[in-house]
Amino acid sequence: MIAQPAKAGFALHMGDCMLILGHRLSQWCGHAPVLEEDLALANTALDLLGQARRWLAYAGELEGKGRDEDDFAFQRDTHEYRNFLLVEQDNGNYADTIARQFYFDFWHQLQLAELKNSSDERVAAMARQAHTEVVFHARRSRDLVIRLGDGTAESHRRMQQALDEFWIYTGELFEVDEDDEALVENKTIGDVRALHAPWLKQVSEALNEGTLRLPQAAGMRSGGRRGVHSERLGYLLAEMQFLPRAYPGAKW
Questions:
Q1: Any alpha helices (H) in the chain, and if so which ranges?
Q2: pLDDT (tens digit, 9 = 90+) per residue, 120-169?
Q3: Which of 28, 98, 222, 231 is the most exposed place for a label (fewest CB within 10 A)?
C-alpha cells in the first residue's frame, strides 16, 4: 500500500514548510521596521507554527513509529527535512521577506482550497482550519507588495529586486513525484500542477497593480522535497534545535 507512506510524506512536507517559514518569520520579532509589522509577522509565524504542529502530528501517526511533532522538529538533520527551498531562504531586508511570503501565501491559499475537498477527512479538516488564516496572510502580503511597489523609488527598487531574487524558487511549488500522483489518484490531494495557472494570474495581477514586472528566469531551483537543501537551512536548524539537543528530555 503506497497510500499510507505517501500520505505521511505529504503531511511531513506540509508541516516542514510551515515550521521553517514560521521560524524564519519569528526571527523578525523585535526587529521589524515598525511595531505594527512586528506584531503582524509574529502573528503569522504563530499561525504557521500551529499548522505545522497539526501536520507533523498527523505525519507521526501515519508513520507509526511513535514520533510526535517535537521529534520531527528537533531530532532530524537537514537532509531529512522536506520543505520547499523558498521558505528556508534568509529574511534579508523587509522587501525580501515580503516577496518570499507573497509567493508562498498565494500557493498556500490555493493548495488549502484544494485540500478542503480531500478524501482524507483529517487532511480536509486541517485545510479548512488553516484556510481562513492563510486567506488573510495572502491578502496582507499582496497589499504590502503593491504598497512597496507603488511607493517611493527606493521601495519600488527593493521590492522588484526581491521578487526577481526569489522567483527561481517558485517552480518547485508545482512539482509532483510518484507519491503525489498516487495521492491525486485516491483524491487525498489535488494535482498541484493545476494550481500554477491561477497562481500566476494572481501574482501577475498584484504585480501589475504595484507597477512591478513579472520576473523572468532561465531555470528554477528545486530539491527541498527530496532533502537537498541550501546551507541556510543548516544554520536555521542549528539555532532552532539547540536547546532540545543540548538538554535531551528536558521538561520546560
A1: 3-26, 35-63, 69-74, 85-88, 94-115, 121-149, 153-166, 178-185, 196-209, 231-240, 242-246
A2: 999 999 999 999 999 999 999 999 999 999 999 999 999 999 999 999 99
A3: 231
Q: Rounded distance, CA 36 to CA 251, Å? A: 33
CA angle in degrees (0–180, nearest 5) for 130-148-155: 140
Q: Under a CB-based contact definition with an 8 Å cutoff, are residues 75 and 20 in contact?
A: no
CA distance 213 to 230: 27
Helix (H, G, I), strand (E, B) or coil at 247: coil
At 196, list the grid cell: 500554477
d(CA 111, CA 189): 9
Rg (CA), the chain: 18
Element (H, E) at 120: none
The pTM of this model reads 0.95
228: which DSSP letter? -
Q: Cα(189)–Cα(114) distance, rounded to whole angstroms? A: 7
118: cell is: 480531500
Name the strand (E) or helix (H) holding 229.
none
pLDDT tens, residue by residue, 87-134: 999 999 999 999 999 999 999 999 999 999 999 999 999 999 999 999
Count of residues in the chain: 252
How buried is residue 162: exposed, middle or buried, by Cβ count under 10 Å (0-12/13-18/19+)?
Answer: buried
pLDDT band per the 50, 70, 90 thresholds, residue 217: confident
Angle value at C-alpha 202, between 118 and 123, nearest 5 degrees? 15
